[in-house]
Amino acid sequence: MRVLHASLECYPLAKVGGLGDVVGSLPKYLTDLGCITDVILPFYDNEKVHHLEYEEIFTGSLSLGENSFDFSIRKLLSTEFGFQIYLVYQKELLYRPDVYSYEDDTERFVAFQLAVLNWVLSEEIKPDIIHCHDHHTGVIPFLVSQVDTFQSLIDIPTILTIHNAQYQGQFSYDKLDYIPQFDLHNIGLLDWDHCINPLATGIKCAWTVTTVSPSYMEELQHQANGLEGLLTHEKAKCIGILNGIDHDTWDPEKDPMVIENYGVKNIVSGRKANKKWLCEEYGFNIEKPLFAFIGRLVYEKGADLLPDIITEALHHLDVNILILGSGNAEVELKLKELKETFPNSYNTYIGYDEKLSHIIYAGADFLLMPSRVEPCGLNQMYALRYGSIPIVRRTGGLKDTVIDIGDGGFGICHDKVNVQDVYNSIKRGVEFYNDQKYYRKTQKEIIKIDHSWNNSAKQYIELYKSLKQPQ
């Protein structure tokens, strides 16, 4: 079976968030299970792509209204990724240093999807499944099933995986001519709330819709940024499959980015070496419990509450807090200012540093995830893999992967997104940390939890097989 994943992100070539991690790791596990797995994404203007060798295997052109754009498909020659990667090179629209946040993102995303399908049309051996990821590829199921040009692909099952339903890619009908000719009686498949909504389109037209955790699928029927009714209507073809993590990349015994490697047997000394580096780098007392946050400083992550959470915690508790992230400018400023208020117990790194994130997982005692929305969450799985205790709000994938110590589990959970609930959880963390025997025992247990893609990849294989069976 051959599966083609279409995505805007794929680690390590292009990563903004969890989407990049998923598309950079799931295909490896699918390949190991005997599924021929390819990934196609844009050819970006970044150094991670530039040094790679490739061959040009297809050239074509596409139209967005009255404008025509030439493009090519480049096949990477490297075998280091564990699966085959193809890149869409399009100079005017796709060859950019960043993945998102351009004024012409609508044009970029539609062009990418048209280029992918034009290439698939030309291939003698077609994929058995086209697996689309988020709204950036949500129009593909419509194009395959409704557009005259692509009618020969209509029997190829399409899957849409929703990584985050908050972002839907809406654009107005004055850009309808970006979509090649189709029967206008079916224009309702593009429409949601009086505009073209690629995520809604994908939900309507894909053969199957998946989310990145079972709980997130349930939550979307009640809170999906306006798509609740649609997801409820289409729930018969929806399934939640929990994301995994790449145990080859995220392995404290082999990770080249951490200060000292460790496993279950030397977890105490190994983690202490990493914590010591963090404390020396950011001015902390190593004897105090270290709480950390890693992620985008945005509303859905609860980041707007971080300044008040930090202030409340450091006024009442003898702890260290380290923040790694970027996002909302106002939140960034407040977090920077707090360094003057708490110079010996708080610090922040505004931006993102992959190496630093690995060291934090390996050295911080607790990871804070006060998320309002967390479709799956990978950070808590990374934390568990490295022996750091996650402190999470019960939502989405956090609810599916972290069990509270009060319920016989290994993490600390709270139900609401407010300063008091998070503060109380930090306070519980301090009490937990002070019981070193229990704390160390829990660390040795969580590092052995298997959150790799093994189980989830098997679920995807079964899904692919079911779609290829006679309907």
UniProtKB/TrEMBL annotation:
InterPro entries assigned: Glyco_trans_1, GS/SS, Starch_synth_cat_dom
Gene3D superfamilies attached to this UniProt entry: Glycogen Phosphorylase B
Domain of life: Bacteria
Documented EC number(s): 2.4.1.21
Residues that hold ADP-alpha-D-glucose according to the record: 15
Pfam families: Glyco_transf_5 (PF08323), Glycos_transf_1 (PF00534)
This protein's pathway: Glycan biosynthesis; glycogen biosynthesis
Signal peptide start-end: none
Domain Glycosyl transferase family: 281-433
UniProt GO MF annotations: alpha-1,4-glucan glucosyltransferase (ADP-glucose donor) activity
Domain Starch synthase catalytic residues, every copy: 2-232
Catalytic activity: [(1->4)-alpha-D-glucosyl](n) + ADP-alpha-D-glucose = [(1->4)-alpha-D-glucosyl](n+1) + ADP + H(+)
Top EC class of this enzyme: transferase
Keywords: Glycogen biosynthesis, Glycosyltransferase, Transferase
Similarity comment text for this entry: Belongs to the glycosyltransferase 1 family. Bacterial/plant glycogen synthase subfamily.
Protein's job: Synthesizes alpha-1,4-glucan chains using ADP-glucose.
Name by which UniProt lists this protein: Glycogen synthase
Source organism of the structure: Aquimarina rubra
